[in-house]
Amino acid sequence: GFRSAIFCKLALAFFIFGTGAIALTVIVVPLLISKGFGAGEAAGMAALVGIGSLAGRVLGGILLDWFDAKKVAAASVLAPVLSCALLIALPGSALQAMAACLLLGLAVGTEVDCCAYLASRHLGMKSFGTLFGAINGLLLFGVGLAPVIANYVYDITRSYDPVLWALIPTCLFSALLFLLLGRYPDFGESAGQPASH
Q1: Do residues 28 and 98 make contact, with C-beta atoms less than 8 angstroms apart?
Q2: What 3-state class would DSSP assign to 104?
Q3: pTM > 0.85: yes or no
Q4: Alpha helices of 67-93 — where are they, by DSSP H?
Q5: 6 to each of 1, 41, 112, 185, 197, how far by Cα in Å?
Q6: Which of 26, 94, 181, 196 has the lowest tally of Cβ within 10 angstroms?
Q7: Residue 79: how many CB atoms within 10 A of its CB?
Q8: What Rg value do the Cα atoms of the chain yield, rounded?
Q9: Could you tell me if 159 and 34 are in contact, meaning their C-beta atoms sit under 8 angstroms apart?
Q10: Positive or negative, the Cα torsion across 189, 193, 196, 197?
Q11: Using 50, 70 and 90 to split pLDDT, how confident is the model at 188?
Q12: 95: exposed, middle or buried (Cβ count in 10 Å: 0-12, 13-18, 19+)
């Protein structure tokens, strides 16, 4: 399983997403403060990330029941691109900052569902624990690594804008990896593959 192209695409796509979008949730308060908002105002806006994440979990489950999971994953990875664009283009707008936080939360919530679903459908259940654990470990490694890098960039440049600009192409690349996954393999009943919807 570790040698398969599907595993490599999934692992890389979720590592990139973890390094970019999910880690952005960790630095959202200092990022908003750097955009001119007060600490209390920034914390209030950041709460929308959590609300969006909860809504994204429910929405993600519904979308996975009705649409191709790789397209759902690709779309959710593109949402942080809009968040970054809003924060770069309209740095002092409270409405745009709130929309950016909400979109980011929706993406994170939806993508968590997509991670488990895509891994089970593309890798099967025979070694699911090992393979999904590796993918999830890489995602969490990215989540831990990115805030260190982002804050280091801020210390040097006194701005989070270079981080936001870097997230745009990385999220686009992650979306492309999801779209290149192809059809679900047929593992048969012996592999414990979940029934299709």
Answers
A1: no
A2: helix
A3: no
A4: 69-89
A5: 9, 43, 18, 10, 21
A6: 196
A7: 24
A8: 17
A9: yes
A10: positive
A11: low
A12: exposed
Q: Tokens for 94?
A: 């409270």
Rounded CA separation 94/32 (Å): 10
Between CA 25 and CA 69 the distance in angstroms is 23
Band (90; pLDDT cuts 50, 70, 90): confident
Burial of 12 (0-12, 13-18, 19+ CB in 10 A): middle
pLDDT confidence of 55, banded at 50, 70, 90? Answer: very high
Encoding tokens for residue 131? 């393979």
Q: pLDDT tens-digit profile of 4-43?
A: 788 888 889 888 888 888 778 888 999 999 988 999 999 9
Tokens matching residue 55: 């809504």
Angle at 116 between CA 114 and CA 118, to 5 degrees: 60
